[in-house]
# Entry
Amino acid sequence: MLKETYFAVVAKVKKANPNAVFYAAALKMPFFVDKTLFKAHLTVLAPTPELLKEFKTIEDAVGSKTAWVTSNYEQRFRSQILNDLNALAKLKELCIEAMEKDVYLVCWEKNYPCHRFLLLDLAREKLAEWKINVKIEERAPVG
# Structure
């Protein structure tokens, strides 16, 4: 299954699911995380520095949900990934790997809104095209 989590709980998730594989989908890895828990650091699946900086600047002023909308984050990130053949190929690889074991996309944010959720959505949308039959974690409704 393709899943998501955040850096602060990776060790706990790994302890509960020792066969799981973790991929950092962020521009930078935090100093506090055990990097040996990660199979790879995939900056290709992270938002661009420009998008992240704009989002964080707005978030500091008005909060994450407003920043998400104001920065047009979702559309811009989806476009970034959909127009990057390397990113799509990596996402497809992760889906194939997730047919055999739990694969986690990991970044900084604890909750939605976060690009991890968009990556799961994009993977779900591409499954038929890729002819892959894999389960992808559903996100709880945002209210």
In short: The CA atoms of residues 20 and 101 lie 6 Å apart. Residues 2-130 form one domain.
